[in-house]
Amino acid sequence: MPKLSTKLLTSNAPKEVELLLCCARTCMDSESSDRIQALLQQQLDWDYLLQTAPLHGMIPLLYTHLQAICPEAVPPDILERLQNHYQGNAQRNLFLTGELLKFLDLFQQHEIAAVPFKGPILAASIYGNLALRQFGDLDILIHKQDVIKAKELMLAQGYQLEMISLTKAQEAAYIQSQAEYNFWRAEGSSRINVELHWGIVPGDFARAIAPECFFSPLEPISLQQKTILTFTPENLLLILCIQRSKHLWERLDWICDIAEILRTHPQMNWQQVIEKATQLGCRRMLFLGLYLAKELLQAELSQVVWENVQTDPQVEAIALKVTQRLFQQNDNLPRAYIRSLFHLQTKERLQDKVEYCLRLGVTPTVTEWARLPLPNSLSFMYYLTRPLRLVRTHGMRPLKYLIAR
Hints:
This protein is α+β, with helices and mostly antiparallel strands.
């Protein structure tokens, strides 16, 4: 049985990585199944596999397919550990789904429009089974005008805000420039994490993307016998490609999400998706997600859409870098440099690149507020202290590096 064929993987890619790629799907085709059986006949580094799979959200799918295809080829202790991981994840997912439904009821009672996405929503609507996807937090999108009200409700429920206390002026600046509040609450020996979003990405990553352009239309899905309104497949696809580009596509399950959306929604309105992505300046981010899903996981795309993806010559080069970093964290440069360069590369418009650099250089963050508390009357000074701090911390090396590229 030949190796998995993709231009993004080198011929000496670890067998364990290939096994994860073969398992990164809900519906197993005969070619992938045959390749899994062939790989299991070889000497595998199971310790590496058990360490790597959870980092990429792959335990549920890995266990499901190994158990279904040839459990006798897996060492018994390894299969038992995978089963324990799978069952523990399934139980936690059920618990988190119950929490999500409580939040949605709470927000509805207080007339806060809230749309859940990722996490349980993806597991139920795209994977068709809450147990088949790993997720560690709950994501809910609300309108910016409801942020303060929603925050107070979260605090009243015993959740804590994962950041320093802010003055009213600082909080107003934070809500304007950022896109989410992270809350947590202890639950036994673990914790529950909830992310309240009022934007798709923060303002320092992309030009203002009003979440309202994704709020309509919404479509119903069934979650634990309740009807929940969430994003259309077209909007969900675009949101995920934007957010995963912000986070450098660092996990295999993020790519798997894209492949599963394509599988479950073959009648996607591609004209709508590409037009909206172009309008928002996120077309390259969309094409990058589609390219990764097709080349790494053999996701099906129509010839017309694939030709559109290939019109951007930068997409393949960026996808290759994503794949190289996916399982190898051996970059010599600081992460901040890598992240900023990647963000610039994923923007197709010059004005967006310039605006990104300006926002990154001058927009105050919690770090500035924590290091130098200033009265509200002097809050404008933060726009000067941030570039000074960046130069003091990193020198001119980041700028020289970006210009050289």
